[in-house]
């Protein structure tokens, strides 16, 4: 198991052994602690990851598809396999700052993302959304991005509910390759 270790239950809860297994995912601490935040933080990053991504190689950027005004890339910290972000190339923070053509292409890319993920992984549904501002939950509030999160019946099992841990069955680069090959030309 890469990046995770499983330990069986000798955990102590309230002075008593609890008998629970532990799935350790230490790679997530860089996100939780903010160690990998860009210089200047997420509100005013010195190097916005969404501005940098289109110029990086696909295996590093996780860009799946490119349009004239927007692009789609995999979320580095996905809620589910195939969790995509649709971003404008232009560095804007708020949905109201998009012009008409950017808004139209962002909507079209979101539709394409849903079609591709359904075709590749048979998603049963989706959560779509934008978190506008840090107080609304935007991790990178300075650059607008639309979340496209595939959902399957029963995908919210005990791990995220109880352990606040998501088990993902596929590496991000493998998911990126599948989605990029299925994206309409």
Give a verbal description of the structure.
This protein has 185 residues and is an alpha+beta fold. It has 2 domains: 1-36, no CATH class; 47-182, HIT-like (HIT family, subunit A), CATH 3.30.428.10. The protein is 28% helix and 19% strand. The protein has 6 helices and 9 strands. The chain has helices at 29-33, 49-52, 58-61, 100-121, 158-163, 172-182, and strands spanning 5-7, 12-13, 16-17, 22-24, 63-66, 70-74, 84-88, 125-129, 146-151. The strands form 3 sheets. The protein has a 5-stranded antiparallel β-sheet. A two-stranded antiparallel ribbon has the order 1-4. A two-stranded antiparallel ribbon has the order 2-3. Strand 5 and strand 6 (70-74) form a beta hairpin. The protein is globular, with a radius of gyration of 18 Å. 24% of the residues are buried. The mean pLDDT is 82.
CATH architectural designation of the largest domain: 2-Layer Sandwich
Number of strands: 9
Major sheet strand order: 5-6-7-9-8
Roughly what is the average pLDDT, rounded to an integer? 82
Relevant terms:
185 residues, alpha+beta, HIT family, subunit A, 19% strand, two-stranded antiparallel sheet, 9 strands
Topology:
Layout (H helix, E strand, L loop, with lengths): L4 E3 L4 E2 L2 E2 L4 E3 L4 H5 L15 H4 L5 H4 L1 E4 L3 E5 L9 E5 L11 H22 L3 E5 L16 E6 L6 H6 L8 H11 L3
Antiparallel strand pairs: 1-4, 2-3, 5-6, 6-7, 7-9, 8-9
Describe the structure in brief.
The chain is of the alpha+beta class and 185 residues long. The chain has 2 domains: 1-36, no CATH class; 47-182, HIT family, subunit A, CATH 3.30.428.10.
């Amino acid at each position: 198991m890469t990046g995770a270790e499983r330990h069986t239950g000798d955990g102590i809860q309230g002075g008593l052994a609890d008998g629970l297994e532990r799935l350790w995912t230490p790679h997530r601490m860089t996100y939780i602690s903010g160690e990998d935040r860009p210089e200047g933080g997420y509100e005013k990053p010195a190097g916005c990851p969404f501005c940098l991504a289109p110029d990086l190689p696909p295996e590093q950027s996780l860009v799946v598809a490119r349009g004239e005004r927007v692009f789609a890339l995999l979320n580095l910290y996905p809620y589910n396999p195939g969790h995509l972000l649709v971003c404008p190339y232009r560095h804007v923070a708020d949905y109201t700052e998009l012009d008409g053509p950017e808004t139209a292409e962002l909507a079209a890319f979101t539709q394409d993302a849903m079609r591709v993920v359904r075709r590749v992984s048979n998603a049963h549904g989706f959560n779509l959304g934008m978190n506008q501002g840090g107080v609304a939950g935007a991790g990178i509030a300075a650059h607008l991005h639309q979340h496209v999160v595939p959902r399957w019946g029963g995908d919210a099992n005990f791990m995220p509910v109880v352990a606040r841990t998501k088990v993902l069955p596929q590496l991000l680069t493998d998911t990126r390759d599948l989605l990029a090959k299925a994206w309409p030309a």
